[in-house]
Amino acid sequence: MHFSKSAFSLAIGAVGIMxxxxxxxxxxxxxxxxxxxxxxxxxxANGNFTNVSSGSWFAWDxxxxxxxxxxxxxxxxxxxxxxxxxxxxxAGASHLGAPDNTDTNAITAPWEFLGNTGSDYTTIGITGSxxxxxxxxGWTVTWNGRLINTRGGAWGTGFIDGVxxxxxxxxxxxxxxxYHATVPLNDPSGFxxxxxxxxxxxxxxxxxxxxxxxxxxxxxxxxxxxxxMLAGLGLVGLAARRRRNE
Length: 246
Hints:
Layout: H1 2-21, E1 24-25, E2 33-34, E3 40-43, E4 49-54, E5 57-60, E6 73-75, E7 83-84, E8 111-113, E9 116-122, E10 128-129, E11 133-135, E12 139-143, E13 146-149, E14 163-168, E15 174-182, E16 195-203, E17 215-216, H2 223-245
Antiparallel strand pairs: 1-17, 2-7, 3-4, 5-6, 5-16, 8-9, 9-12, 10-11, 11-14, 12-13, 14-15, 15-16
C-alpha cells in the first residue's frame, strides 16, 4: 500500500506541473481582439429558463442577496468587433422593445432584458494584465435609452472597483474575464443600488496572431522532470495491475 500511495502522489505532482504550464502571465497589448463566445441558455423539462450553462453572460442581483443565481443570468454574444484592447467604443442599440435586425453594437451584440433592448460599451479603452487586472472603469451599460453606471462599487470576494479579473490559458489563446460593479444610489437609470456581474469568455484573435504569453508562471520542466512525470504515471499503472492480480 505504501508503494501505491507514493506512485499516486508522484503522478498527481506531474499533473500539477502540466496544469501550471498551461497558465500564463501576460500584459495585453493595444489592438488585441478578445472575441466573445455566445452564452448558451439551459432550460428545465418544462421549458423554463434555468441558467446560462456556458459562454458569456451578464446578471443583475435582483433579490439583493449578493449572489448570482442561474435565473438572474442573461446570455451575451459577440458584436461587430468584440473587445479591441485600448479602444473605446460608442453606445450601441438601446430602445423600447426587443432587438431588431437593424440593431448593432461593437463589443456585445444587442441583447434583450425585460422586453427591451440594451448593449455594452466602454468610454475608456480596456487595458491591463493578468496580474493587475483590466481597467474596466469605462464599462457602461445602456438599456431602453438609459445609461447605467457600472464603473465601480465592486462586490464579492476578489473584486476591486473598476477592475476586471482576467485569466489566460496557453491552450488556443482562451481567456475569461469577470467583473463586478454596483450602480450608484439615485442613478438616473433607475437601477441605483443593484449589483451587476459580467462574465466574458472567448479567444484572442488578431491578424498578427496572439503572442500573449511571453513568460510562463512556472518554468518549463527539465528533461529529468519529464522523466519523473512519466515514471510516476507508469508506477500508478503498475500498482493498479498488481492490485488486480492479488
